[in-house]
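2024-03-11 09:14:02 INFO receiving multi-entity request
2024-03-11 09:14:02 INFO entity count = two
2024-03-11 09:14:03 INFO echoing inputs for audit
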Amino acid sequence: MTVTSLGYYALLLVGIALYYTLPKQGQWVILFLLSMAFYLRAAPAYTILFLLASAFLAYVAGMAMDREGANGLSAHRKTVAGITVAVVVLNILLWFLLKGSSFWMVGSRLIHHIIPAFPQLPALPIAGALGMGYYTAQVIGYIIDCYWGTIKPQRNFLKLFLFVSFFPQLTVGPISRYSQLECLYEKHRFSYQNLCFGAQRILWGVFKKLVISDRVGLIISGIWADTGTFGGVWPWVAVFLYPLQIYTDFSGCMDIVLGSAELFDIHMPENFKNPFFSRSVQEFWQRWHITLGAWAKDYVYYPVLKSKPILAIGKWARKHFNKKTAKKIPWLVGMAVLWFVMGFWHGSMRHIAGVSAWFWTMLVASELCAPLMEKATARLHINTESTSWILFQRVRTYVIYSLGCVFFSADSLTHSIDHVKTLAGALGSLTSFQGTIAGLGVTDADMGVIAIGVLALVIVAILREKYGYARTWMQGQILPFRWAVWLLLFIITVLCGMYGPGFNAQDFIYEQF
Amino acid sequence: MTREEAFERLNKVFREVFDDDAITVGETTTSEDIEDWDSFEHINLVVAVEDEFSFKIPMGKVVTMKNVGEMVDIILEMGK
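2024-03-11 09:21:47 INFO inference complete, emitting structure
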């Protein structure tokens, strides 16, 4: 079962019926049962044991801290810190064992080259749990929040297990803090608005995924599969199309997830805020995969910056450099750690050595060049708030993001290096159009659908920027217009969505984490 | 220490950290109101506040404080 399958929507319908008709104190139990039903249909049954293990570790840690806390936190600080570290490490190890096979396979291969007697380790023959990267991050956040005392540990194990396994989030997140999902245990009244908003958001998400993303994906995978035929400018077309594919894939799935939760009056944190409106790389990462960034900021970046070694580096820098330069040194180190962890979370060397290294370099370059840019724009009398300059900044951010994705879109470090080589080789033949779009199995009608889809995305993004949510604007429109828009979206999705016989529904890109 | 005294000392810290003598913070001042107050400067600010008031702010408070008013609450609570 996936979130675009009919079975999923049948599960939602049954769930809603039970959720709002049975006694309200049992609503969280319905969510728990739905989550179990979804999980067992979506992943190998035995993998639920990994989920259970993480939740159990978090529960034991929370309970131990609760007891130690009741005894007087300061007196038992060391015990509590020990429990926190041990349980966080165990969760990371479990994730590393099941999802981090790329690290130890690459690592053992490298050692094998130096010491031939060292065995090359294979991937584990068992699958990791569904959404392991997301729920492991949530569990770690929960344990640290308990340690920091910002939340009270959950005493009901099943309720904690629901926080870990809440079914909409298991596909691609978002990574919620415990305090953001405590509403799971509250009583919820039926609301027509929640039902409408939830259904609308799901429809919009399915449209993004099945109508746009999978169609654009065909072009991109076709180009990379045969760069002999599709040489010249085509690999570059694939590079600059990829953000469209991944955005409509990831944010489309996120719309389905958030819309599904909204049907149950559960409002989960947003993961996207018009990322392609960003004027800088810094801003981009505040608008893209927001919950991962927020998680890494709270649980990695802040503690690292406030750690003794980084404070010592800052002190040393203040002695040897002027104030502005001295500030940059601990920032550089903190960002390096942050990006390493973000790359590590994605579970492969190419994310660390490619994607993370690229964005860290771009962030550092942009920070270091900022004073120069400021001087240059002032000297050239550039109005930095003019539409054309803002557009230039947005295009620049898009280009930087697209280039970083070269490492993300390939399925291994070797392939991403091959892609870089192909792109570099193609630089000399950018005016050459070998092969045609028809050769990729994409018709003119498909191109028309993509164009309409992009237009819809732009309109919704502009409305969102202005009104917070496009649907807030829609709500203010007259009834026939609203229904016409939603019906049109539904019909286009049904007619142009890539599903059913003859289509191979693509997995969500972020489902692998 | 009174709330007013805490604000007075905080203003000095803010002006020093953000290199801006025009800054005056109030109960509802947030990172949105001060241009350079990003996540990195947030930690610089916390460390400068710790130095000024001679105590450590727990990480739980560092990540959850929403405005300067809450920062003053923490200062008054920790300074007891």
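2024-03-11 09:21:48 INFO post-check: Residues 3-17 of chain B form the longest helix (15 residues).
2024-03-11 09:21:48 INFO post-check: DSSP finds four helices and no strands in chain B.
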